[in-house]
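Hi F.,

I've been meaning to write this up properly since the lab meeting, where we talked about keeping a consistent format for the predictions we share between groups. The idea is simple: the sequence comes first, exactly as it goes in, then the C-alpha cells exactly as they come out, then a line or two of notes. No screenshots and no reformatting. I'm using this chain as the first example so we have something concrete to point to.
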Amino acid sequence: MMENKTNATTNAIEIACGIERRGIGLYRRASTMAADDESRALFLRMMEEERQHLSYFESLRGCGDKDQPDETIGSLASALASEAYIPGGLMQMAYEGAFTSGEATLDSMIQAENDSIDYYEQLIKQIIEQLVRPASGGEDGQWSETLNERRDQLSNILEQERAHLSELQSWR
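Output, unedited:
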C-alpha cells in the first residue's frame, strides 16, 4: 500500500513534467506565429522558463530507474497536461488574441500560469489527502521518510509555479 502512495506522487511529478513539456512546445510554435518582435521574444523567454522548470521537476523524480515512469504513466501525464495547460493549444491562444501584441501575449501567459496553479493546487491537495490516509495496518498520520520527501516535492512544484506567475507579472 505504501508503494502505491509513493507511486501516486511520482505520477504527479510526471504530470508536472508533462505540463512543462507542453508549454515548451506551445511557446516554441507560438513564437513563429507572433505578430511582432516583442511577442516573439516573450514566447521564447517563456519557453526557456518552462525548460528550467522541466529540469527542476525531472530532478524531483530521483535518479534511479525505479523512479522513472512507465510508458502508460507518461502517456497519461501527457494527456492530463493537454487538459490542464492551455487545453485548446495554439488555436485557443489565437482565439484569445495572444499573438497580436506583447501585452496580449503576456496576458495569455499569465492566464495560463493561473490555470496551471489552480490545477496543481487541486492535484496536490488530492495527493496529500491520499498520503495522509493510513496504510493498511498503519497508524493514522504515519509517514515514511520517502512520503515526507514526496509531499515536500509536490509543495515545491506549487511554490515554483507561484513564483513563476509573480515573475511573469513583473514583466509588465
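Notes:
The chain has one domain: 2-170.
The radius of gyration is 17 Å.

If this format works for you, I'll send the rest the same way.

G.
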